[in-house]
Amino acid sequence: MEGGSSSINGGMLYHEVQESKLCAVHCVNTVLQGPFFSEIDLAALASDLDRTEHQMLNTQHHQESHNVSMDGDFSIQVLQKALEVWDLQVIPLHSPVAEPAQVDPELENAFICHLQDHWFCIRKVNGEWYNFDSLYAAPEHLSRFYLSAYLDTLKGFGWSIFIVRGNFPKECPMTSAEATNGYGQWLLPEDAERIIKSSSSGQRQQHHQQPPRTPPTEDDDLNAAIAASLRENGGEVGTSMNSLDDDLAAAIAASLKESSPAVVSVVNKDINAANTPPAVATLTDATPPVTPATGSQEGTSETESNKSTLQDK
After folding, report:
1. Does residue 183 sit in the same domain as residue 223?
2. Nearest partner of 46 among 79, 18, 21, judged by Cα
3. Would 244 be classed as within a structural domain?
4. Cystine design at 134: which of 2, 18, 164, 200 (Cβ 3.0–4.6 Å)?
5. Residues with catalytic function
6. Any idea of the CA torsion for 3, 91, 80, 5, to the nearest 10 degrees?
């Protein structure tokens, strides 16, 4: 685990933008927060693994490698070997030893995510979580509230997720000339945020296995929950809204107003209906007299007859 209270690399974030199919290299380096490995380094590790496997299985070394593909994609074993150099362990999230992380991922410091031919890292740096996907122009900040939901979303899309545990390097032990590899960059958190905000979704690099983007705000999750509730209840949410206090109901309606006007109208309608007393009728000159709801004309005649009899007496 990361020890001490001092910041990593002076508070800077290290990010690598996608180069060819070197996402495994980018992933390892962003886990370590520095340009520690090149594609040549990982290829050498893959070759060592192949040699060991061939010796154990008594097969020919010239057979196809299971640790690096022809287009440069590396296996999880290669990433494990690279991180073992720095005394770091790579553990599948679904394994029993990772059970605490399944409940509370905030306890960890780094996750590696993989689907087919793409790798990327989610990393805690200086107490804040970032998505260091090399398909993004800069690391994207992840709120703690959304971290668990985002990991669950990735799993739902079929991504394999691994935990990285151990003593992470706190500084990049290289000179300024060595601390770059042509596709790496050092960014302050505010610079990364500015780059992400200025990059529209159409301008960002696209990839057929690109993971779902993290949402810009947590209100989107609230919107989805309310919309789902509306669908389940046929749009009648007045009863459930009555159980909320007025401030919470107003907050929900306000958060929905920006992105889900259709849902807002239904929610507001039900809130108003639940909180508005019945309308009181007012009489005007044009209002016709109201006929009594009980009694009949025959009953009225009988009453007048009784009055006449009493007067005669």
Report:
1. no
2. 79
3. yes
4. 18
5. 23, 118, 133
6. -10
Chain centroid to CA 184 = 25
DSSP state string for 278-297? PPPP---TTSPPPPPSS--H
- Does 15 share its domain with 79? yes
Please say if the pLDDT value at position 213 is more than 90: no
Q: Cα–Cα–Cα angle for 198, 203, 207, nearest 5°?
A: 130
State whether 188 and 224 are in the same domain. Answer: no
Domain around 258? 219-275
Residues 252 and 181 in one domain: no
Asked if the structure places residue 96 within a domain, the reply is yes
pLDDT of amino acid 214: 55
**Angle (deg, nearest 10), helices 261-275 and 246-257:** 160
Does 185 share its domain with 254?
no
C-beta separation of 101 from 49 below 8 A: no
Mean per-residue pLDDT for 245-268? Answer: 44
Measured distance CA(83)–CA(80) in Å, rounded: 5
47 & 162 share domain: yes
Tokens representing 237? 């949410």
- Kindly calculate the radius of gyration of the chain based on its CA atoms and give it in whole angstroms: 33
Residue 120 lies in a domain: yes
Q: Tell me, yes or no, whether 27 and 90 share the same domain.
A: yes
Of the ranges 16-30, 162-176, 190-204, 236-250, the best mean pLDDT one: 16-30
Q: Which H/E stretch holds residue 91?
A: strand 88-92
Which pLDDT tens digit goes with each residue over 19-30? 888 999 999 999
Q: What is the pLDDT of residue 170?
A: 85
The CATH number of residue 102's host domain is: 3.90.70.40
3-state secondary structure of 161: strand
pTM of the model: 0.64
Q: Helices (DSSP H) in 58-208: which residue ranges?
A: 76-84, 99-103, 144-156, 189-198
Tally of domains within the chain = 2
